[in-house]
Design brief:
136 residues; 50% strand; eight-stranded antiparallel sheet; mainly beta
């Protein structure tokens, strides 16, 4: 039995984020998750609680260095994010589109003298689409 080829492990170094089609070269972190509302069902004849899938909820965070006022200008308007996870040694690349993202809050100021100014935006999204899967 052969193990995993360590050169195929994907590093985030080559990842990219696009907001409404514009490459965000200042971004160094993107996280997006989908959670489901599991409904508990207690059914007769079952000694275990059964589960039914309810509504889904998409949440995420995008952060990096502040280089413009675009996030402030977007205010609470909706936008799409495309996450591209790529590594030259990987089996391919993965692109996921986060649809109708809306910020939870808009950061107006957050700075300290002598330090790089960073910007973090937590957001929700209403759907997603796997555009390009990585397949072995």
């Amino acid at each position: 039995m052969t193990g995993m080829d360590p050169t195929r492990a994907i590093l985030g170094t080559f990842a990219q984020a696009f907001i409404d089609g514009e490459w965000q070269t200042n971004i160094n972190h993107l996280e997006a998750n989908v959670e489901i509302d599991k409904r508990e069902l207690n059914l007769v004849g079952h000694g275990w609680v059964q589960f039914k899938i309810g509504a889904k909820r998409g949440t995420g965070t995008i952060s990096g260095y502040k280089v413009s006022s675009k996030m402030i200008q977007r205010d609470f308007g909706k936008f799409d994010i495309i996450s591209k996870l790529d590594d030259p040694e990987a089996y391919g690349f993965e692109r996921v589109r986060l649809i109708r993202c809306m910020p939870d809050r808009v950061q107006l100021a957050n700075w300290t003298a002598g330090e790089e100014v960073t910007e973090e935006t937590a957001f929700t999204f209403e759907d997603y689409e796997l555009l390009d899967p990585i397949e072995i």
